[in-house]
Amino acid sequence: MIIKQIEKLLSSINENYSTIQSIAQFCFENPDEANFIAFLVENEIKQVESDRKLLYLFLIHEIFLLELKQRRATIDFIKAFGMKMKNMIQVFQIVSSIQLLDKVFYLINKWETEMIFHPNFTMKLRSILLPKYELLQKSKQQQLLDEMEKSEKLEKNLKIIQSVSHPKQCYKLLKQVQQLEKRTLEFNQNRNNVNKMKYLNLMIEEGEECRKLLINSICQIQQFYLDLSKQGEELMKDLKSTNKLDYYKRKKKKLFR
Q1: What is the pLDDT of residues 87-120, one digit of tens each?
Q2: CA gap 187, 205 in Å, rounded
Q3: Within a 10 A sphere around the Cβ of 125, how many other Cβ atoms?
Q4: Based on CB atoms within 10 Å of each CB, which residue in 34, 43, 173, 243 is the most buried?
Q5: CB 17 within 8 A of CB 63
Q6: What does pTM read for this prediction?
Q7: By the 8 A CB rule, do 63 and 27 touch?
Q8: CA contacts within 13 A on the Cβ side of 128
Q9: Cα dihedral 190, 196, 202, 203 sign
Q10: Where would I find the CID domain in this sequence (predicted)?
Q11: Is 48 left (phi over 0), alpha (psi -120 to 50) or beta?
């Protein structure tokens, strides 16, 4: 029954300080369940969102304060949470808020000053988060530098705008920019036209070469057929001469029979 109550209370934790105090008081009144409570808190820290993880550390801190106040000799919760504290602190390596880590460091420092944990142990706890903390600090510094750079650029632009005090000057400046853009466009168009003309001239030259080759081929074909025609005429003449000779030979035979 008590275990179910503890589970319900831990899952209902919120930012209300009185709620955290009441849950801490209930846990403290059940020292026999200290190890189980530490186990449940560790699981909750691992599972909840980053902004809720810190609530459980504050709960642990409140339980520690009760231990110090009541001065219970067994210090069950300090022992139970001490065994799991490294694992719980390691969970905070995934957070991306430097303010949240500052609060974790604050609690670790309190545990050291209140002599809840030995300084060597708290130093180990801090060393777990230190690389992540330094990384977030560098990121924040870079972000500030970027913002400063943007601010400087904006200031320069404002000075340029302010330097153009008269509307006519501003109009002239805009007109000059417009003319510059127009001339740039014309230049690009002319350059494209020049490239097109070069390509067209190249095509014309290639066409002229093809025309010359075609004319040459036609001339060669004509010459071939002329030569062929002459040869045909000569053959016809030879054929006619042969036929005439045969004719006269036949006539001669008939006359002299």
Answers
A1: 999 999 988 888 999 999 999 999 999 999 999 9
A2: 27
A3: 22
A4: 34
A5: no
A6: 0.55
A7: yes
A8: 20
A9: negative
A10: 1-133
A11: beta
